[in-house]
Specification:
The chain has helices at residues 20-26, 45-48, 62-66, 70-83, 95-110, 113-116, 169-194, 201-206, 275-280, 335-343, 351-354; strands at residues 59-61, 85-89, 128-130, 145-152, 210-218, 230-233, 239-244, 251-255, 258-261, 269-273, 290-292, 300-308, 314-315, 333-334. By secondary structure, the protein is of the alpha+beta class. The protein binds 2-oxoglutaric acid (AKG) and fe (ii) ion (FE2).
């Protein structure tokens, strides 16, 4: 399939919105009404203080996991069940690859607006420079600019969105994409074992995957207490790898009804379970709501690398995941329809999952 033929526009589209970076560049105190969150969504002051370290999300040693270390595998099981989020260290992705990836994104967002606009989301396309999940002129907006690219498989890349005027941009993404895919596959292989299958069991079920990257630029905001970099959502994929800024915190996850900050660890990768994993595992592994807050004086960058199943896949709980103790919690749906539903509206926590596949009579 050629890039012209692969219609990422089928995934849905987002309405064009102004560049937040440009708003701030023109007036650092600017705060249009559309960005001021409803009271219920605002990052409350006590939450913005660091939570006690006892509530830090799990940290896993990827090298041990890849070797089949039993303690580490058990930690992975708990992390996916109780947190839906963990950080991995010793993941084997060379530091140089991480640094070049971050530098490429920084270079992209540093381009003048006219240059970035050469890569702006065209017409119906979800890919490119712009925003995601904007479905109406009325809805509240994220304090964030985005570059969204489908990165794997190679044949469906749309290179018109790849900023080839930045030296090394393509190469940096290429190398990180390859490394991220290896890490994601190894984690899925381990989850597959935990679900009682062989290493390839999950992969057989979700089929050929696509990889996409959402590169987020959160400009500083004069009132971080009123805005959100990205509003609460869960990721509509199998698994996500997040590369976040080493210095500036921003990511928060919902854990036991509290927003817990994910403290950056230098060169670590944050991993989270996506909706598809939750569905396949019949709710055993949880796709957790998360959001990002902004910083008063510094811009923050992050790169979310999503692993999507095949568009045509019928998603629903795997056979082995349903039994008398764990009755079926989700129906079935073609993945493309699920993705379209999710990407075509303002994202509201996990409402897209609850309104589509979640079986209503289920107790949790
Ligand atoms: O920037 C972050 O920390 C979170 C980004 C995120 O959740 C996403 O892009 O899906
Ligand atoms: Fe996310």
């Amino acid at each position: 399939m050629g890039s012209e033929e692969y219609r990422a526009s089928d995934w849905g589209k987002s309405l064009p919105v102004p560049s937040v970076q440009e708003l701030v560049r023109n007036d650092p105190r600017s705060l249009p009404q559309r960005y001021i969150q409803l009271h219920t969504d605002r990052p409350l002051a006590p939450v913005m203080a660091m939570a006690p370290s006892s509530s830090d999300i799990p940290i896993l040693d990827f090298a041990l996991l890849a070797k089949g270390d039993q303690d580490e595998t058990r930690k992975l099981d708990l992390a996916c069940k109780e947190w839906g989020f963990f950080q991995i260290i010793n993941h084997g992705v060379p530091e140089e690859v991480l640094l070049k990836m971050k530098a490429a994104i920084a270079a992209f967002f540093e381009l003048p607006l006219e240059e970035k606009n050469k890569y702006v989301q065209a017409g119906n396309d979800f890919q490119g420079y712009g925003q995601g999940y904007v479905a109406s002129e009325e809805q509240k907006l994220d304090w964030c600019d985005v570059l969204f690219l489908i990165t794997l498989p190679h044949e469906i890349r749309n290179l018109k969105y790849w900023a080839d005027t930045i030296p090394g941009f393509k190469d940096a993404i290429e190398r990180y994409s390859k490394e991220a895919q290896k890490v994601a596959e190894e984690i899925c292989a381990n989850i597959s074992l935990l679900m009682g299958m062989d290493k390839d069991g999950l992969q057989r079920s979700y089929g050929n995957t696509k990889q996409a990257m959402r590169m987020n630029y959160y400009p500083p905001c004069s009132r971080p207490d009123l805005v959100l970099g990205i509003n609460r959502h869960s990721d509509p994929d199998i698994i996500t790898l997040l590369l976040q800024d080493d210095e500036i915190p921003g990511l928060q996850i919902k854990h036991k009804d509290e927003w817990i900050p994910v403290k950056p660890i230098r060169n670590a990768i944050v991993v989270n379970v996506g909706d598809v994993m939750e569905i396949l595992s019949n709710g055993m592994y949880k796709s957790i709501e998360h959001r990002a807050i902004t910083d008063e004086s510094k811009a923050r960058l992050s790169v979310a690398t999503f692993m999507f199943p095949d568009d045509e896949l019928e998603i629903g709980p795997m056979e082995g995941a349903v039994d008398e103790h764990r009755p079926r919690m989700y129906g079935k749906m073609k993945y493309l329809d699920y993705l379209r539903y999710t990407l075509g509206r303002k994202i509201e926590g996990k409402a897209h999952l609850d309104n589509t596949l979640k079986i209503k009579s289920s107790s949790s």
